[in-house]
Amino acid sequence: MAITKSEPMFLKSIDGSGEIKDKEFIATHMRHTIIKVGPNNVVQIIIDNAVACKATGILIELEFPSIYWTSCVVHTLNFALKNICAAKNTERNSDAYEQCFWISQIVDDTTFIKNFIVRNFIRLLIFNTFNSLKLFSIAPTRFVSTIVMLKRF
Predict the structure, then answer these.
(1) CA 37, CA 64: separation in Å to the nearest integer?
(2) Does 1 have pLDDT greater than 60?
(3) Which residues pair with 131 in a beta bridge?
(4) Would you state the torsion angle of the CA atoms of residues 10, 22, 34, 44, taken in this order, to the nearest 10 degrees?
(5) pLDDT tens, 39-64?
(6) How is 19-44 classified by DSSP, letter by letter?
(7) Which residue, of 44, 84, 100, 131, is most buried by count of CB atoms within 10 Å of its CB?
């Protein structure tokens, strides 16, 4: 994806099936795309916080000094929220958890309601009749998807 002054645009996708997604693999594809659009037209690359992605960002910054790598804010927020809301009994997070535990309670209640609806055909039919949004399953590794579910409720 690229973001321009006027709008976001899709540039290209890569089928990485069967590939080892290491820093060289990712950097090669990033490099080709940067060269295609012109290095002077690229200010920043944003990728997740995986080790290979961080290493890719460093490689791109070394090769193209005017381009900056930034970790994805949503990915970072996902880790932070998951860490705060999951770690009830650790001393390190006890203060943060005490202030944010209500998030976990709301998520648990909302998940219970969602499961109550989707596990019964009639209840799901009634829900879908009166609501244009669809309920979806939450990926256990993606806490931010929980926020999307809560907004839908």
Answers:
(1) 13
(2) yes
(3) none
(4) 80
(5) 999 999 988 878 898 899 999 999 99
(6) ----HHHHHHHHHHHHHHH-GGG--E
(7) 84
